[in-house]
Amino acid sequence: MPSERAAEFTINHVQVLDREGNVDEELDPDLSEERLLELYRGMKRARRLDERAIALQRRGESGTIAPALGQEAAQVGSAVALAEDDWMVPSFRENAAYLARGTPPHALLWYAMGMEEGAEIPDGQNDLPPSIAVGSQAIHAAGLGWAQAIKGEEHATIGYFGDGATSEGDVYEGMNCAGVYDAHTVFFCQNNQYAISVPREKQTRAETIAQKAIAAGITGVQVDGNDVLGVHRVVEEALEMARKGEPVLVEAMTYRQSMHTTADDPSVYREREEEEGWEERDPIDRFETYLEGRGILDDETREEIEEAIEEELAEAVERAQEGREEIDPAEMFDHVFSELPPELESQRAAFGGEENGE
Amino acid sequence: MANELRMVEAVRTALGEELARDESVVVYGQDVAVNGGVFRATQGLVEGYPDRVYDAPVAESGIVGLGVGLAAHGMRPVAEIQFSGFMHQAYHQLQQHAARLRSRSRGSYECPMTIRSPYGGGIRALEHHSESFEAGYAHTPGLKVVVPSTPADTKGLLTSSIRDPDPVVFLEPTRLYRAFREPVPEDDHTVPLGEARVVEEGDDITVVAWGAMVREATRAAERVDASVEVIDPRTIFPLDSETILESVRKTGRCVVVHEAPQTAGMAAEIIARINDEALYYLEAPVERVTGYDVPFPLFAREEEYLPDEDRVAAGIERALSA
Ligand SMILES: Cc1ncc(C[n+]2csc(CCOP(=O)(O)OP(=O)(O)O)c2C)c(N)n1
Fold first, then answer.
1. Cβ neighbours of B243 (radius 10 Å)
2. Which of residues 43-62 of B touch A (CB under 8 A)?
């Protein structure tokens, strides 16, 4: 049987900032001080919001939370690389990315408190609402990127999903269709090592997630997801390619430091030792060391930043709590169709009225 | 002999006993093995049966489709879909294959698969975790659809479902998983599919309810000044019309309660059957107390969405005064 090599591939792994906070001069994206501090502030804001949201959940003030603790570099590094006119398609763990895109923190808390109001998109922000169904949103990122291609836009779309999501057919369909239509899409997988209790190795036999791009005929690249500079650099390059109709899959290697959601107990399926190993690779600590080394961050600046975050957070919590008091249940009827069909009109009229025994 | 169990423990018991009884039973789904299921319904099973209890990748279409293949080759798959809202990710496998393997192969193959899933609202869950789509499955020829409302029924119905030669969608009301305990028979306990349970006997009016709504109906029945017969069909398809019709012929009035949206819901089907077979016994139009025709809201509004004791009682009053 004659045989020759039909295809070959390699997957690159990129790291700019190592665990000790040293930067690879050659790969350094050379960001302005302002941008560097924006990345830092974005990560700190996200972490504090998550911590606060978990505390609210524990007090019974909010529902299930899916924290992004440990994934701040992946989310902020990528979201900050987007231009305002680019689109973002989140999964359900993208609080850090939402914040970086301009969503006010009280809105994220509203959503966690079970209020649709929290998913309303601020004017001028090209973001979709959270997608709870794992992986289903990857195809929307492809569709948005296709629309950008058809319209001849110079913009791109980023679509977020987890490692588990790549087992869903939808994610492959999204990448495949994006490849076929030259969509302006960057698929951004946060490989946080677990899909609830199932580790990455039991999710797929593939050696990397990034290589799943190969089957779809698009570019795949892996990046240290706890390295905010690396993520920023890789995503900027990916967005450049996407804007020219070359979709990219980025696999950011990171770790979910907390539980999957506040309903989950990770001690059932993973060892403390493993968690500690990843805590040493914490994305914020590493970046802090780097910024301090460069003299961009000192104790004073850090305190200023932290105080501003606490102040913003306190206001956000207050606003969220007030909003919860004002909730109007009848609004559940209002956004289902552009106009209320007769059935809904009569259901809305009966709602809370005599028919309900009130 | 009977053990006091919660519904979630009854699920586990039935699975454990069927794994022990029948070597062809395979239990799998997302997080069911090491984690024991996100609701702990499969907790500990993997220890007893490491070769027949598996974690699955996040792939619902895969989970149901694998079951069709397993079943075609003589296994008895019992798959968990983590939340019934994600059964839609597997719906084409259910509708195009699981439900039709028998008919498409002219009876050459069968699909003795059970697909378990927590369903329904009332647990402050995230989007897509609270829907009830039983009418959709009932509308899919070839599927049996079961909804238990008590721990004892859960064990009996799940055991029957696993032993059934056809695919069964087994919907477990999440809200009832830990709501109460009751004695559950310890021996080989089955409840036949397609047989309703008369929860309360009464003469003035019939209330048909299933899943978590059975408790709302029973409470409402206690509150109104009438003798109420409460019927839990337990199996949505095949539906035990006869028990419902017999009751309606006796009481002359009926209220059907479900959490699912009203339009094209199971209440509509039940009312059509009453019209077909018992119209002249009716003293009032049959009432429906259901969810609204809106996507199941996030949990800040779910209590307002879900039919409760008040709404069911009001429905009973309307049917009594008509
Ligand atoms: C279609 C679908 N199936 C199952 C679930 C339940 N679920 C929620 S998150 C999750 C694991 C997702 O893992 P991954 O994609 O790696 O993202 P991560 O949660 O780790 O961020 C599962 C199975 C869901 N939300 N949607």
1. 19
2. 55, 57-62
Residue type at position A235: V
The answer on pLDDT for B158 being more than 70 is yes
CB distance A165 to ligand 1 below 6 Å:
yes
Q: Name the strand (E) or helix (H) holding B205.
A: strand B205-209
* B244 closest CA partner among B208, B194, B282: B208
CA-only gyration radius of chain B, Å: 19
Active-site entry in A256, A281, A286, A290: A256
For the record, the structure tokens of A43 come out as 């990560």
pLDDT at A358 over 60: no
Cα B28 to Cα B131: distance, rounded to the nearest angstrom: 22
pLDDT at A356: 56
B3 lines ligand 1 (CB under 6 A): no
In B, minimum Cα distance to A262 occurs at B125
Q: Per-residue confidence at A155, pLDDT binned at 50, 70, 90?
A: very high
Q: pLDDT for B250-291, tens place per residue? A: 999 999 999 999 999 999 999 999 999 999 999 999 999 999
User: What's the rounded Cα separation, in Å, for the pair A282 and B217?
Assistant: 53
pLDDT tens-digit profile of A248-286?
999 999 999 999 999 999 999 999 999 999 999 999 999
Are A14 and A221 a contacting pair, CB within 8 Å?
A: yes
- Partner A contacted by B40 (CB < 8 A): no
Q: Cβ–Cβ of A136/B262 closer than 8 Å?
A: no
Is residue A355 pLDDT above 80, yes or no? no
CA A249, chain centre distance (Å): 14
Q: In terms of DSSP H, where are the helices of chain B?
A: 7-21, 45-48, 60-72, 91-96, 101-104, 134-138, 151-163, 213-223, 241-251, 266-278, 302-305, 309-321
Contacts of B262 (CB under 8 A, 6+ apart): A343, A347, B268, B288, B290, B291, B292, B293
Contacts of B300 in chain A (CB under 8 A): 113-115, 324, 327
CA angle B239, B240, B244 (to 5 degrees): 115
List beta partners, residue B261: B291
CA distance A144 to chain B (A): 21
Tell me the C-alpha distance between A132 and A277, whole Å.
29
Contact A249, A212 (CB under 8 A): yes
Residue A302 falls in the annotated catalytic set = no
Residues of chain A neighbouring B89 (CB-CB closer than 8 A):
133, 136, 168, 170
Atom of ligand 1 nearest to the CA of A190: 21
